[in-house]
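subagent[fold] <- orchestrator: predict structure for attached chain, return tokens only, no commentary.
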Amino acid sequence: MPDAALLTRAAEANAASFVAIATASAGGRALEVPGVRAIATPAAPERPLFNAAYGLEPGALARAYDRLAGFYADAGIPRWTAFVDPADSESVAALAGNGHELDAEPRLMLAEVGDIAESGAPVELDPAPTPETIAALNDRVHGYPGSFARTLCSLAGLDPLVAVVDSEPVACALAHDDGGDCHITLVATLPAHRRQGIASGLIRRLVRRGRDRGCTTTSLVATPAGAPVYERLGYRDLGSVQMWERPAR
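subagent[fold] -> orchestrator:
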């Protein structure tokens, strides 16, 4: 599959996973227009990650900008972000011209499911992970206290794993299937338990389970610092995606 198609597949899977998460929250909603998917989460208006538009075709965010602005205004969201391919100069210019600021440049990563290394340290699993457990871990690790708890209200359509040490949750990850891709998201590990292979073990298990469900690829979005960790697991770095945030006015 050409790199452009792989990028599109990873971007679409990322968008689909957050649509599934956000729309299960109180008042959560989604918007689909040609080349764009967007989510609004009134339960967590302070968290741009849960109030985001995803550009999936060149120029699509630029063409849909007024519609998106109205969508977020109607949802009472003053601060939202847009995921855009940095090569999409038309959309980048439209975002900058409307007051968005470049906030982050995470990496889109993808692998064939068979390329993810299966060996690793054993991980003890919570036999019945709940939204509350996963949300609490993400809130502790990623900040914005309570935003994950108010957003992650259901695990429907998601494959969750939680690692425990001495019966206490210490790490988690979710998978969401989209078009044959097993997308990994909401990975969080408490600081005292990092660099022990726990998160990697969770991801390996999720990918194996995705393969058993018929997925052929697996994708995720990584920080630049985290990308080498995922490369060691077998993921390929496809390049950056830019996050342009519209600050609250």
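orchestrator: received. Logging for downstream: The chain has a mean pLDDT of 95. The first helix runs from residue 3 to 22.
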